[in-house]
Amino acid sequence: MPKSKRDRPVTLSKTKKKGREHKEAIVNAIRQAVEDYSSIYVFKFENMRNLKFKEFREKMKSTSRFFLGSNKVMQVSLGRSAADEMRPGIYKVSKLLRGDAGLCFTNLAKEEVERLFNEYEDYDFGRTGSIATEKVELKEGPLDQFSHEMEPFLRKQGMPVRLNKGVVELVADYVVCEEGKPLSPEAARILRLLGIKMATFRLHLICRWSPSDFELYIDAPGDSDVESS
């Protein structure tokens, strides 16, 4: 029987990567946005959730445009110093693109942008490595929230469980996670099963730039240098 073409292995190292053309397209799009919108904001994100961010972006679609990705590419687009900046003072924006940051170009009034960003937050399940916001401990005894089919899965997560007359039962107290410590893969799975959400997706405004104004919202390392430049 001939081999199915579907079974052919694919070497991931040979897949096409985003190259120079992609970066140039982003640079051109950002530079065009500088011309099209009246103000620019740098924002940082906490516990990013792509679907939730897409929903937030859709709310502002008619008046704004967002960019996330390589900070270096965004910096180059705006200019990394006073010598190569696109507009006077815009390099200050570039210097604040560090870590989990993005750009928002908008024609909305300052007060409206601040309201939208400050009011938005969404709760979700914590992922592996995120910090637990509370201690979760399960006490010895029956776990009525789980069906008997879940017993093998729970045991694989390290929980000391057994079936007792068709009921999943903890044979000893079990600490799922400790407050302030990173979640293990097993803890993240168990918390999801328990319906306990520990991650809050938030967006924090860092600065605002317009042709006539530059404003810092929160302090960050190096911000004093930007303000005094």
UniProtKB/TrEMBL annotation:
Superkingdom per UniProt: Eukaryota
BP GO terms, sorted: nuclear-transcribed mRNA catabolic process; ribosomal large subunit assembly; rRNA processing
Claim: Cytoplasm is one of the keywords in the record: yes
Residues covered by the Large ribosomal subunit protein uL10-like insertion domain: 127-196
Main location: cytoplasm
Entries under SUPFAM superfamilies matching the protein: Ribosomal protein L10-like (SSF160369)
This protein's GO CC annotations: cytoplasm; nucleolus; preribosome, large subunit precursor
Gene Ontology molecular-function annotations: RNA binding
Localization per Swiss-Prot or TrEMBL: Cytoplasm; Nucleus, Nucleolus
Keywords: Cytoplasm, Nucleus, Ribosome biogenesis
Family assignment from sequence similarity: Belongs to the universal ribosomal protein uL10 family.
Function: Ribosomal protein P0 is the functional equivalent of E.coli protein L10. Component of the ribosome assembly machinery. Nuclear paralog of the ribosomal protein P0, it binds pre-60S subunits at an early stage of assembly in the nucleolus, and is replaced by P0 in cytoplasmic pre-60S subunits and mature 80S ribosomes.
Subunit details: Associates with the pre-60S ribosomal particle.
PANTHER family noted in UniProt: MRNA TURNOVER PROTEIN 4 HOMOLOG, MRNA TURNOVER PROTEIN 4 MRTO4
Name the record gives this protein: Ribosome assembly factor mrt4
Organism: Ziziphus jujuba (Chinese jujube)
Gene this chain is encoded by: LOC107427781
